[in-house]
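Check out one such.
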Amino acid sequence: MKVILATHNPGKIREFSQMAEPCGIELLPMPDDLDPEETGSTFLENALIKAHAAAKVTNMPAVADDSGLEIEALSGRPGIRSARYCEGTDKDRREKILEEMAGVPEGKRQAAFVCAMALCLPDGTVLKTTEERWHGSIGFVSRGENGFGYDPIFELDGRNQTSAMITNEEKNTLSHRGQAWRKMVDFIGSPEMKF
């Protein structure tokens, strides 16, 4: 089954494709020139904006996610602005967070990765939505080379590891995106699901 994945983020494309292929789902990229403005005030609203736009333009079913990091000590920031929290690279955004968290002691650094997903048809029908969370905390330094975005500063609960220190397979099992995607794959692959 072919579904448009409404993102230009190579890290997300890689992660979702690894989880989709064993289920017989082929994810196709959305057109390079399509870049819907994320004007929503929640992760789910932004996922719906992207899925609707990609489905309409491609005339195919489209799935989109909007995900980010919510940090309790920063009143939920960076939240829906995670990818645009500051100018520059992922490393610049991680360093900004670490600077803002410099005075926050261990035990007060709780955070969660959030992922909302939406699956839409070209006519605007919303087939499925889901939202999942991966709880952890913010470390004091970046650690690990795997993953992308905020992974190197996201400490896993009960483990002396960041999400950038575990394998892709383990991350796909534990993560907010992995949890949301499994629910979406189960729905797409269900016998009653026909596009």
Observations:
- The chain has one domain: 2-188.
- The beta strands are 2-5, 26-29, 62-71, 110-120, 126-138, 154-156.
